[in-house]
Amino acid sequence: MGRKFTNAKVGVKLDSLLSRESLFFGESYIGISACQRFMELVAWFSTQTDENTAGIGRDKIADLFNNYKINYTSAISVLDSVGILYKCRNGFYNKFTKDGKVSRFKITDLGWRLLVDGQREYLRKLHNDPDEDRRVRNNRRLKKKRQKDVLGPVESIINNNLFDLEYSKEDFARFWREKCAFFSIDEQFNINYSIIKIGESDFNEIVRNDEDGRIHHIWVLMKSDARPLFRLRGKPYSRILDIRACHPTFWASFVLDYLCKKKKDYELINNTVDITNNVIYNISNNTISPISYSLPPLGSLHYSYGNVDELVNECSKWTAFGINPDIDPRELIAQDLGNGETKETVKQLVNSAMNGSENRVFKWICQNYPALSSIWLQTDLKLTGVQISKFYETRLILDPGLFELAAELGLDILPEHDGLGIFAAEGDPELDQKTQSLAARIGDNCLRLFGFRVVVKVKTP
Q: What does the pLDDT read at residue 90?
């Protein structure tokens, strides 16, 4: 009797390749399922890094393979020998758990092709086999019933919304026929993987990331081209709200808050707290969290920065630069840099400069804003984006009041890091007005918290 293969998600080509290896002979054939899951894990994390590598702890890998009663080092060795994985690199700091080391893995071109081929096979089965479709729907209902009740209000809404996302199989088939050829192999993987995970409600617990304050859920990590395929409780994906140039806009505030934290630390150490300072800070783990924003008393900053007028002028100039509703600051930087720079190129340069990459925009910032830059350079530059996400961006986008307002307006929303995806009833005549109400809420909240209004753009998917 031929070997029975039980996991519909494992592609035929991957199964054929690995079943020739002695490690998977006999009852150990189920280890191929573990290899599939491990490859998906590596590929998924790889699509979220600039290096296209995935840092994964050995304990996590061991747990995955132990469930299939197979030695993980032997399995990874096979994946390496057949050309699915590049040789892993060991001994990297685990920035997520901040404890122990991780190994970095990278999928080869062959590995990507095997994954995408397997996804296509599984999606065809999912879309055309009534029994498989019934199995998935039943599992979704069970998973939703088993949800934990310990989530916060925003996390709970996001969790419920993810469970209620649905897509048309016909629309997906048409989308794939028309656009597949324009996507890279890792983008194809991202879309198929996300479609499968959302379709099966197979996603991680909804929690805030301690490092950047964001909620990294499957919807926000999916390539945006696929989002219009989905409906939420029957409502189509109708509008997108986006904080324009979010991280650059808050850069000056971040630098000033860093300086005020230094001032606060100095006063606490020297018992010279200035009670006239009306800026309140939550100081922990060398981070700063402004509760209300205003410039500190100027004279009190002289101990750490001499020319305070210059500092304040640069702060005002930079922030006005970022919140001008008529001109995108990245277009102005592109013009200033010259050499045919485009807005999109500068956008990428700005994002990497905000995290310490000494590119052309980084040098432009240091030259044009020397006072702010001299303070910024005292910080861990690689944490700039993380800190801005945690203490500025997420306080606007994950604002419980924003979700309450959306519900009052009859809208459903899902956060997309520095923006929102909006689902509205088909043909809602008040959609634009409702969308502007949400945008105004973000602007009002920013004014209350930080002293200025960010520019919130409205887009149609």
A: 77
Place of tokens 């630098």: 255
Determine the 3-state secondary structure of 396 from DSSP. helix
Identity of residue 137: R
Q: Give the pLDDT band of residue 232 (cuts 50, 70, 90).
A: very high
Whole-number Å distance between alpha carbons of 52 and 109: 12
- The CA dihedral of 235, 238, 448, 301, to the nearest 10 degrees, is 130
What SS3 state is found at 154?
helix
Token couple for 318: 């930079």
Question: Distance between CA 438 and CA 405 in Å, rounded?
Answer: 7
CB contact at 8 A, 265 and 277: no
Q: Using the Cα atoms of residue 401, residue 407, residue 408 and residue 409 in order, give the sign of their dihedral.
A: positive
Tokens 């303070």 sit on residue: 375
Cα separation values, 159 from 146, 191, 289, 316, 414, Å: 12, 20, 26, 39, 10
pTM of the model: 0.86
